[in-house]
Amino acid sequence: MDLSVPVRVKPGASRARVGGRHDGPHGPALVVAVNAPPVDGRATEAARKALAGALGVRAASVTLKLGAASRDKLFLITDAPDALAETVDTLRDGPP
């Protein structure tokens, strides 16, 4: 199963963190704070790796679908386990 994950990237954060909600243009988005600056795609790459790490998937299975020059991005996770959508919801909205 492929899973699209809307993400709001917060570059230049004091500490890297995955969690929280932002209502963005792609729907409710998962907040990903990264230490990398928003220069030359560094924040996007750091967000991709942080998202993969938080979800427990290989970084190679996470690709950017939309938003290369925006803080609001849409990542695609290929071959995602069925329970991964629930993990994304928990990270975004907290435990049920």
Q: DSSP helix count?
A: 2
What form results from the Cα inertia axes?
Answer: globular
Instruction: Give the total of beta strands.
Output: 5
* Derived structural class: alpha+beta
Beginning-to-end CA distance, first to last residue: 24 Å
Q: Approximately how much helix is present in the residues? A: 25-40%
The largest sheet is: 5 strands, mixed
| Global mean pLDDT | 95
Give the second-level CATH assignment, the architecture: 2-Layer Sandwich
The CATH topology assignment is Conserved Hypothetical Protein Mth637, Chain: A
Placed side by side, the strands forming the largest sheet appear as: 2-3-1-5-4
* Percentage of residues in strands: 35-45%
- Uncertain spans, ≥5 residues at pLDDT below 50? none
Number of domains: 1
Order of helices and strands: EEEHEEH
User: What is the CATH superfamily label?
Assistant: YggU-like
Radius of gyration: 12 Å
Q: What is the CATH first-level class name? A: Alpha Beta
